[in-house]
């Protein structure tokens, strides 16, 4: 039989309960695996005797393996290539920052820099956004809860992860139950991340947004809007046909009313498609009654075959100016393309080159070598 990840929480809890083992031992097991992912079950002392035979027959500490890590030349970003037990690959990206640098006599903050981990939720994605590398792969499979959490376990061996963004491969709200369970695990012992440090990015799966605040209060919601009107959305994001903009905006208003939290809006800037003053005005009007932060993302072409071009810097700046000055909307521009991927969901794809590099012994030195 196929062994399951110890981080497949509901399967583990069910097995423990069926075997009459107290589930209160589960967090201890997770803690030990976090400390040593290669541990043998017998090395975890003080479990009930029945737990060892159950664990040995049905569970492994990790179901995925970290195949390779590629570091950007400035050491800010590391891309993890993770091989699932199915043989498929997903990516997770660590972004290091030290936002309080300078507040302690110019020295780095105590405890060292903190990192954000960009996590994948699916192998591929069925939403098919035309500008997205992952969308070009098509949908292969959902990740299990364990496979999502294991990305954090792998990354925690490399860096001190304090923030999680679900902006890797896949549409997280299309893998809703695994997402919810994974985030619940990440916010409890032994991970204990604050829900306020976790961001879920979606293209706008309306029915799931309607449930999200109830199931996961206090996390951050980011919406990949990318256009202020339905016809442009449908042109660049085919899945938007199923989620009319009007219904999406209703869902966002309700989400904000219930959560009292600002919403992050991701907007990829595509030359001549969605970056004119008209669209800036439409976007401003659409968002002026919400409390949002808009993140304008200069498009990063997916190879030479991309049908889109990057908006000029001047156009991006003017777009930002309209949103800020006319509509008083906090608007940022993602500056470092490529390395700073904390912008929109699904800008990751596992290429054949990635897999080749993953199985080679050559050290990877630059994340840009692996991108798109
Ligand atoms: S942008 Fe996000 S939702 Fe769209 S295809 Fe890419 S991964 Fe999927």
Brief summary of the model shown:
The strands form three sheets. This protein has a ten-stranded mixed beta sheet, with helices on both faces. A two-stranded parallel ribbon has the order 1-2. Strands 7-8 form a two-stranded antiparallel sheet. The chain is built from eleven helices and 14 strands. α4 packs parallel to α5.
Polypeptide structure, described:
With 372 residues, the protein is an alpha/beta fold. The protein has two domains: 4-60, no CATH class; 65-368, TIM Barrel (Alpha-Beta Barrel). The protein is 32% helix and 20% strand. The protein has eleven helices and 14 strands. The strands form three sheets. The protein has a ten-stranded mixed sheet, sandwiched between helices. Strands 1-2 form a two-stranded parallel ribbon. Strand 4 and strand 5 (89-97) form a beta hairpin. Helix 4 runs parallel beside helix 5 (176-186), helix 6 (206-215) runs parallel beside helix 8 (245-259) and helix 9 runs parallel beside helix 10 (313-326). The longest helix is centred in the C-terminal third of the chain and has 15 residues, at 245-259. The two termini are 36 Å apart. The model is unreliable at 337-346 and 352-372 (pLDDT under 50). Bound molecules: iron/sulfur cluster (SF4). Iron/sulfur cluster (SF4) is lined by residues 125, 127-129, 132, 134-135, 170-171, 203, 224, 345-346.
């Amino acid at each position: 039989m196929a062994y399951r990840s110890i981080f497949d929480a509901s399967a583990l809890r069910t097995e423990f309960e069926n075997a009459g083992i107290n589930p209160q031992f589960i967090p201890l097991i997770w803690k030990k695996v976090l400390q040593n992912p290669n541990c043998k079950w017998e090395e975890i002392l003080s479990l009930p005797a029945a737990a060892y035979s159950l664990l040995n027959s049905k569970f492994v500490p990790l179901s995925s393996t970290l195949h390779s890590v590629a570091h950007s030349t400035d050491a800010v970003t590391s891309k993890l290539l993770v091989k699932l037990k199915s043989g498929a690959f997903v990516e997770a990206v660590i972004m290091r920052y030290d936002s309080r640098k300078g507040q302690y006599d110019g020295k780095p903050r105590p405890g060292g820099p903190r990192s954000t981990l960009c996590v994948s939720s699916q192998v591929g994605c069925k939403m098919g956004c035309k500008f997205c590398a992952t969308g070009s792969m098509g949908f292969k499979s959902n990740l299990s809860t364990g496979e999502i959490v294991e990305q954090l376990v792998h990354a925690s061996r490399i860096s001190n992860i304090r923030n999680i963004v679900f902006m890797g491969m896949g549409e997280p709200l299309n893998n809703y139950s695994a997402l919810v369970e994974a985030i619940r695990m990440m916010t409890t012992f032994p991970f204990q991340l604050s829900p306020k440090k976790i961001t879920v990015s979606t293209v706008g799966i309306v029915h799931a947004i309607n449930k999200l605040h109830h199931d996961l209060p206090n996390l951050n919601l980011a919406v990949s809007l990318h256009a202020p009107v339905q016809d442009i959305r449908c042109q660049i994001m085919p899945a938007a046909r199923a989620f009319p903009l009007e219904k999406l905006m209703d869902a966002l208003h309700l989400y904000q009313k219930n959560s009292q939290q600002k919403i992050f809006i991701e907007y990829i800037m595509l030359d001549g498609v969605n970056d004119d003053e008209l669209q800036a005005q439409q976007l401003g009007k659409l968002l002026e009654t919400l409390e949002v932060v808009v993140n304008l993302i200069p498009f990063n072409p997916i190879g030479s075959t991309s049908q889109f071009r990057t908006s000029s810097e001047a156009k991006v700046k003017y777009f930002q100016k309209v949103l800020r000055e006319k509509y008083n909307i906090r608007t940022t521009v993602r500056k470092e393309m490529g390395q700073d991927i904390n912008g929109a969901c699904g800008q990751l794809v596992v290429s054949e080159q990635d897999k080749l590099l993953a199985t080679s012994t050559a050290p990877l030195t630059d994340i840009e070598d692996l991108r798109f």
